[in-house]
Every structure is written in C-alpha cells, then in structure tokens.
Amino acid sequence: MKELYVVKGDPLLKYNIMNKSIGKGAVGEVFFATNKENEQKVAIKKLQLERRGKDRLPFILREIEIIATSSHENIVGYIESYEMGPELWVVMEYMSNGSLYDLVKLHSRGCKLDENLTAYAIREVTKAVHFLHCRKRIHRDIKVDNILIKNDGSVKLADFGTAVQLTFQRLRRTTLAGTPYYMAPELIQRIPYNEKVDVWSIGITVVEIMNGRPPFYELDPREALDAIVIKGVKGLTDHKQSETIKDFVNKQCLCTNPTDRATAAQLLSHPFLSNAATKEQFAKFLLQSSVMYHLEGTGSSGCTIL
Prior knowledge:
Structural class: alpha+beta
Distance between the termini: 19 Å
Order of helices and strands: HEEEEEEHEEHHEEEEHHHHHHH
Number of domains: 2
Helix content: 25-40%
CATH superfamily of the largest domain: Transferase(Phosphotransferase) domain 1
Radius of gyration: 19 Å
Number of strands: 12
Family: Belongs to the protein kinase superfamily. STE Ser/Thr protein kinase family. STE20 subfamily.
Number of helices: 11
CATH topology of the largest domain: Transferase(Phosphotransferase), domain 1
Catalytic activity: L-threonyl-[protein] + ATP = O-phospho-L-threonyl-[protein] + ADP + H(+); L-seryl-[protein] + ATP = O-phospho-L-seryl-[protein] + ADP + H(+)
Strand order of the largest sheet: 1-7-8-4-3-2
Organism: Arcella intermedia
Oligomer: single chain
CATH architecture of the largest domain: Orthogonal Bundle
Protein name: Protein kinase domain-containing protein
InterPro entries: Kinase-like_dom_sf, Prot_kinase_dom, STE20/SPS1-PAK
Largest sheet: 6 strands, mixed
C-alpha cells in the first residue's frame, strides 16, 4: 500500500512551506504551503511515524487509502504524501476558513448560524456521508472540528483517522472510536454497529451548532459516555426552534435504537435540508462573521491532524 500513496522525492523542491505551524495535534503539525509551479495553496500535515514505541505508518496509510479513494466535492481532497525520515508529510486540500468549530466558538458572542445556514452546512456534510455509506465506509468521528469550510462557502468533511471500510464478511464493527460527546449509544456499549453511528453524530453536530455545545458537555468525557447510554439524549428542546429541525435531530438522528434512525439518503430528502440557505448566503455569513472571528484571536488550520 505504501508504494501506491507515498511519492518518492523531496517535497521541498515542489512546495514553499511556511515555517510557522497553523495547527498542532498529539502526533504532528499542519503547515500552510504553496505549489511552486502553479501557486496552488495546500495544507501539509507532518505526522510522526512512531508514537509511544508503536509504528503508526499502517494506521496513517489506512486513512490515506480511504480518503484517496473517496473523491467527492464535500470531502477534503488528498493530493500526495512523502516519507521524510521519522515523519510522513501528507499534502491535502487547503480549506481557507477553518472549521465549523470556529463558528460555534462565537455562539456566546451572538454570532450564530440560523436554521437555514445550519441546514446548508449539514446538507453538504450529509452528502459526503451518503457517498461514504454507499461504499460501506463509516467515518465514526463526525463533529464540528472535522467539518472544514472555505471562504466561498464550500463545506467539506475531513479527518478520516477513525474511518473504517466494512466488508461483505463484516458489515458491523465493535471497536470503540470517535469523540465521546458525539458517540452513539451502541458504539459506546461496543454492541455491533454500522453506518448509523454517523447519523447519530450528524444529529449531535446540529445540536452543538444551535446550542453552542454538544449534550452533556458539562461532564467529563467518561461521565458523558455513561449519561448518553443511561439517560439518553433529548436533542433540541428550545421552543424558538422549528418543529422541522427538531424532527430532523430528535426523530431522525438521535433515536437510541439505530434501526429507527434515518439513513443518510433519507436525511437528504428531509424538509429541514430542503430549506437550506445557498452557498452564496453561507459565504456572506462567513464574511460578516470574520470580524468577530478575528477578535476572538482564534482560528484553525484548514486541515485537521490525525
């Protein structure tokens, strides 16, 4: 697999890479770069190949294989990779406006996405999820941090570090993966699960966008996992929120029994997404929120870390 995705050569001959990191995670950093030949803007993830004495190359190559074979307008594009000593440099599409998380952080300052703008972002993500599910792939970590945006209003799903490929021999998984506050009950309990765990996470994402944080965020992660299983998640309850968005979240996504949840294809035909804002309207909102965004003094890399 390595021969398929890792390019031989020196990326420094092809790319001008900024010295300052634009994102940092536990296993590497993200740097902004431009292609010397055509000035294409890219994000380069410099990932450690070893962590705590374990070889991470097979893990990284699995993510690369999934994203490299998942070409879709709503999935962040993979370009190429280079092995550079103790690191693997992964060149990805650059998303110029950070992530939805950056917008959610402005929620307390009154900069909020209305239902139509939320519907637009979620529709774009759901299109990507539908594409993955049609290929028997599960993302398993859909959340605002992994939904990246561009200044032109493009919305794309990123970070396939926990994604898996289902096979005909194994159409359900039992391994624990994802972010605690977004995990479906069956995933937490390690009951065999399928792609419906992504539908649950879409519902939690809408809750966070509308309320400023996901359910049980006041609890530590372990307590949150217990609460999701024992208490269940109510979803959206504010009387100011429309019945359409409540139905989408509470009745289509956040059903405790996964068989009661909608499929990604069914979500795409739901009235909530049918009333989505346009790409141009979303881009306008991004422009209007940019002043407040910079006042916060925060921003994300436009590419997530594994």
